[in-house]
């Protein structure tokens, strides 16, 4: 949900990468009591109307990046910039046509409401008449078609292309009549300027700014308008008292007696699990949430010690971040209370993170009626820049803006990419469109939910999370300034407070696990949200209404602990700029078993001794990090090292290495090639044989296949013909005989021209006949259709000794832009019956669909069995590597690269694929997230695993980041990460005399370092244990509300018997198998026998299962089982 339209506005060579259409909403605007004195006459000049060219009156618009937003002038209101003196106000008041004046918080600005309505043409004349009265500046009050409101000012924000010189910038601004009033790179945005004009007519400024926006050397230009927003708190609820904090722990009746008794009904367990989260942390004073709002009362008795200062970017003249107009600046104080109101101080309420801090970023001026406010693009963008410079990691903008601004969007994107986690309210309406800025991809959009699970506020496809939104007790301005004048607290409704709660929970997560990166906080927060409520028919599973679900503080903290990145075993940095070191990577095993593995790294654009971009492949010793040898491409433009594959056949003791050189964009369109190398020499060179053709890009992909015939080992090379228009791609299979030579075998082709068949290749036994098969992808299949689609496809070929390699069939995607088949992997035994599953990367290169990985059965059906979805634009599925079993459930885990995620820093996710229900439906759980080290690093472009680098018995993972800038621009990097043995029990498990060491997982999860996993109430689960030297065994079970009598759950026949759940105490259930004698349960250590199918027959394994489960809410369910609990298997 978090990944939505477009991306950042970074660009090159004058081309813009801009967001798609932005939805804006109407923000009601009302004024102060009318001030009227009709003693002076204001006459509208007919001549003024005659002198206005029709062309300039026919259309008004505003540019948001490359989107044109139509504007309509109000017919009775204009905005006048006065000198702020009483005499200027009196002059306006004395005009006969003045019905009403409204003084805005921005100094000098007044909205004049006229007695009579005028056409748009007449409003141009009205403004000229006002200018004739010598006011400093006059603007129309403009509305978007969606209802947003803006007032033009004499200032504008202009961002130029990076290639434009300073001299050209100065010339362009002077030509347009603007002078620069800010420093270069205003608000930290490269090539941005805050400028001012001597023009006095808002219509003229708007047209001039639009002409600037149309220049090819300008990224965007926009007036620094006065906009009007709506704080998403809604007016305070005028109840006679305050409800309990049901969002923390919803256990009806939710009652408070201080200061006035009040009860709120609700649904049990529909809450954020705050008390459970507080068992882990209440926050840290080192973690600060910036509240972008109308200011926070710095001396409030329930907030003062938790305020880390503030600032003001409005033109109010304040510097502290405190409210300026106490009659209307109430909203920020209410938001702050939800986040950090103090605990254990004997007064008021408590926030979700009472030991954290807030920073008051006052960027809005409150308006009447509260919570309306005004803002300008400059005040918000400057606030975001200051927040970033202060090192704050979380922002909360519990508001919506009526008109989008390119400078605000840019600053959100830049600070997001720099690591800040942004939250914003979805809006308090009931539309199916999340409001701006929450709809931005750089912002987590938070909607609302009532105590009984009813959706509250705007929602739709851009919604990420929901949190409590109604009947919420929080801090208020103190004394007579508050909305509740009898206390310093008030009860409120609104997604403002949903947003505040979510931001506060992010503060808890960073307090508990400070090393978390923004990407990891976001992943854990969304993945852990509640979608179902125990013992209730309430469901929060509809993503259009509830996003990922109700934010769950306790689950988010546990998920954050589990998702922290693994340690780096080895870091290798490219030594030449733009060499793309890490575009490919492979791990080479020592076949003799005596030495550490080696790692091979491709740098295909390395300028070597044989010419520019000839390419180089390095081979390193993973134990020392020292280079063992390297190989260079034959000539310029070879891109040698673009693809790599380890080949388990060698005369040197280590695996050989197959290296592709596809000669991409080669000026002479030479066919590509591949080489087989070992640690000492190039064994041979491979080319495309009879299919060889200019621009075939042979060597774009390479893979080991296996033994198709006795005493051979086959490899496959792809030639997708990317550079040759209207040419079919193909793959070619070669037999390596005893590691000393290469014999051409079958040449295979499928799909049509330009569909890039052979873009990806893989080998493995797909049809379970004992002979390896070949799999190839054509991710641009459909590009020739009408209309063109590039849905993508794959095809499999059956291995046999004759090397005829018949087609086994294939699969394709009907969805345009999927790029189905971009990467391929084959996983064995996902269903625990020995069959293989195909993982298909679908990165969605068009940036309009989210990246995915699809899991299909093998031939002949290629039926889809599950998929995993990334985000729009992250290119999730670009690369994959089979890791091996690190959870102890006998299934391999899969590493998936998303190199364009998080500002193109990239991310790699380790996915565990396991059953998610009693029917055995496969689903994915993210075990680990490995983000790139910096924006633009492209981490996850290449992956390699399947090899234990550090000798701990668990395979490790090599990650390529070919555009990382650590050692130079696009010099690249490779890191090898130590993957944890997630199935390894902690504590005393398996250490008793005579007990075999074992591991435990539930539904494929092991709980990471804390070894705790949730077991949903009433949901069947699968419990696995693994013994040393033996395959895993399986138990099926189910936990629910502790029964008052025994429950029986029938087990599958291959296990035998039934599982019985007997209540032992209010929080523990005894679990045993009825196949043998019923044990005595009160000891909570049932002893029984498990019969499981094993190779060669059926064997009985005595076992002891000690349940030490933690029941946080035994009356409402939600049990958590700890993996420190041991499943002990008695050894003979």
Give short descriptive properties of this protein:
Rossmann fold; 15 helices; Methylamine Dehydrogenase, Chain H; 10-stranded antiparallel β-sheet; 8-stranded mixed β-sheet; disordered C terminus; mainly beta
What do you see in this structure?
By secondary structure, the protein is mostly beta strands. It has 5 domains: 46-223, no CATH class; 235-563, Rossmann fold (3-Layer(aba) Sandwich); 571-581 and 822-982, Methylamine Dehydrogenase, Chain H, CATH 2.130.10; 584-818, Integrin alpha, N-terminal (Methylamine Dehydrogenase, Chain H, 7 Propeller); 995-1130, no CATH class. It is built from 15 helices and 66 strands. The strands form 16 sheets. Strands 1, 2, 3, 4, 5, 6, 11, 17, 18 and 20 form a 10-stranded antiparallel beta sheet that branches. Strands 14, 15, 16, 19, 21, 22, 23 and 24 form an 8-stranded mixed beta sheet that branches. α8 packs parallel to α11, α9 (377-389) packs parallel to α10 (406-417) and α11 (495-512) packs parallel to α14. The longest helix has 18 residues, at 495-512. The protein starts with 45 loop residues before the first helix and ends with a strand. Residues 1-58, 236-242 and 983-1132 have low confidence and may be disordered.
Measured between the Cα atoms of the first and last residue, the distance is: 52 Å
Number of strands: 66
- Judged by helices, strands and strand pairing, the structural class is mainly beta
Strand count, sense and closure of the main sheet?
10 strands, antiparallel
Query: How many helix segments?
Result: 15
- Domains, number: 5
CATH architecture of the largest domain: 3-Layer(aba) Sandwich
Name given to the CATH homologous superfamily of the largest domain: Peptidase S8/S53 domain
Uncertain runs: 1-58, 236-242, 983-1132
Please state the overall shape, judged from the principal axes of the Cα atoms: globular
Strand share of the residues?
25-35%
- According to CATH, the fold-level topology of the largest domain is Rossmann fold
CATH class of the largest domain: Alpha Beta
Averaged pLDDT: 78
User: Which percent bin holds the helix content?
Assistant: 10-25%
Radius of gyration over C-alpha positions, nearest whole angstrom: 33 Å
